[in-house]
Amino acid sequence: MKIVDAGVVLTSPGRNFVTLKVETDEGVTGLGDATLNGRELAVVGYLRDHVVPLLLGTDPHRIEDTWQSLYRGAYWRRGPVTMAAIAAVDVALWDIKAKVAGLPLYQLLGGASRERVRTYGHASGRDIPELFDSIRARLAEGYPAVRVQTGVPGLERVYGVRHDAHHRLTPIQAARLGKDLEPYDLFWLEDCTPAENQDGLRLVRRHTTTPLAIGEVFNTVFDYQTLVGEQLIDYVRSAVTHFGGVSPLEKLFDFAAQHQIKSAIHGPEDISPVGMAAAIHLDLAIHNFGIQEYAGHTELTNEVFPHAYTFTDGYLHPGEAPGLGVDLDEELASAHPYDPAYLPINRLQDGTIHDL
Ligand code: MG
Asked: Could you tell me if 97 and 113 lie in one domain?
């Protein structure tokens, strides 16, 4: 079997998604998600100009070899653009391999370790009463857990603040917050400090038993060396889409398992249903699964990406369709072209730029 074509589809059915479609000489196709919120065009260019030409004529079954050649062969390593592009290839090749096998992807990853995948949803509000309305809405939808974040009095617009702290605290502030929250028995405190400062987590860890989750902006296992090796966190949060695909994320989870650290794959709206499906297959298969973030998608997005995975009473299942179980309606996708969009910038009351 050979790869004969690979196309990049950029569509915006409500928000932007980048999808790689790999085609083979035997008619089997594979999809991969390469969406990088706010930097979509950079990944499109990386894929079209630098990756697709390397794929043509290669054997799609050689997933590990392809991954290593894209990672090592470029000389420049790591970084979100590179790793999102490699992720799309990795996932598309897994999709093809599983389709050829006639099995849902999770079967190739070792089979199911559980019957269903626990999720958490999002609740937020400008103030506490609005927040509680939002929490009640998520619980009514069946979510067994809820990520909570609320605005700050005095600030006009805020994209969340705690208990998903969005990397905004200093280590000593995070340590104090974690300690203060201990009586409330949080599932975790998320992204308490800027993730690139791994040493800071030692200080946080020394002062609190509140579980810590970090990693949604990480893109290689090297970002976790200190955090996992010294057991400074409790959940690793990287997404299939931003971590180079299923292959390296499975290795990260194995590394984390040695330290009794669990998975909690990032699952915001800007991971496409293709990336979400890959996550759910992995969630079902690995032993040290913790929880899956699931923000869901709009009806239009689900029409562009019809999928076999289901969300029932707060739990996901990848379905039994061969491969990822996701299709792409290219005609509908082309009716919704790229629409430039960015996350809001955060500034303090005195105008100082602050972490997003
Ligand atoms: Mg977060």
From this structure: no
> What's the pTM?
0.96
In this predicted model, what pLDDT tens digit does every residue of 306-328 receive, in sequence order? 999 999 999 999 999 999 999 99
Judge if 25 and 89 occupy the same domain. yes
Both tokens of residue 25? 């000489």
Residue 334 lies in a domain: no
Distance in Å, CA 211 to ligand 1 centroid: 15
**Known active-site residue 159:** yes
Catalytic residue among 122, 166, 307, 336: 166
Say how many domains are in the chain.
Answer: 2
Residues spanned by the domain of 311: 107-320
Is 65 a residue whose pLDDT tops 60?
Answer: yes
Catalytic residue, chosen from 61, 159, 287, 354, is: 159
Rounded alpha-carbon distances, angstroms, from residue 122 to 133, 155, 325: 12, 21, 25
For tokens 């060396």, the residue is 225
| Single-letter code of the amino acid located at 111 | G
Q: Ligand 1 center to residue 294 CA distance, Å?
A: 11
Same-domain check for residues 99 and 149: no
